[in-house]
């Protein structure tokens, strides 16, 4: 049996083995909207149905989520990773239009991106500081879920960085 190690590289390698998804998080408030690629999200409750999403507090979307108390998580399907991953992975300031050439509609939770088969509309119930990220606990109040599309899942080389 391999012993446990306190070595940072060993810890990073072990954390990197935790599978994660990929999603696009959107939110809007007071005429501003944005979206970003997220990889740390998970269901955390059956009743009420809730998810957790971890974000660096410096992300522009955090201010919108805090102001409106709502967010929309789009789960990227495995068969459509490329263009959306690349577009939202670059990040946007609040002054930039994150949805140029991205078909979408407006909802009270944030922009809803057309063509993504799974989306979860949520009301934030709590925000907890968690090291260099903040953890948002959000109740799923509406959704669309076409289960014929498998979600993208990835494994990182290390759990110490993106």
Keyphrases for this structure?
alpha+beta; two-stranded antiparallel ribbon; 16% helix; Pnp Oxidase, Chain A; 3 helices; 11 strands; globular; 40% strand; 162 residues; seven-stranded antiparallel beta sheet
The quaternary organization reads as single chain
Ends apart, CA distance between termini: 30 Å
Uncertain segments are none
What do we call the CATH topology?
Pnp Oxidase, Chain A
Spatial strand arrangement across the major sheet: 3-2-6-9-10-5-4
Number of helices in the DSSP assignment: 3
**Can you say what the CATH homologous superfamily is?**
Electron Transport, Fmn-binding Protein, Chain A
Order of helices and strands: HEEEEEHEHEEEEE
Number of domains: 1
- Going by helix content, strand content and strand pairing, the class is alpha+beta
CATH class, named Mainly Beta
| Percentage of β-strand residues | 35-45%
Shape estimate: globular
Helix proportion range: 10-25%
Query: How many beta-strand elements?
Result: 11
Tell me what you see in this structure:
There is one protein chain. With 162 residues, the protein is α+β, with helices and mostly antiparallel strands. It has a single domain, classed as Electron Transport, Fmn-binding Protein, Chain A (Pnp Oxidase, Chain A). Helix content is 16%, strand content 40%. It has three helices and eleven strands, in the order H-E-E-E-E-E-H-E-H-E-E-E-E-E. The strands form three sheets. Strands 3-2-6-9-10-5-4 form a seven-stranded antiparallel β-sheet. It has a two-stranded antiparallel ribbon with strand order 1-11. A two-stranded antiparallel sheet has the order 7-8. Strand 7 (104-105) and strand 8 (112-113) form a beta hairpin. It starts with 7 loop residues before the first helix and ends in an 8-residue tail after the last strand.
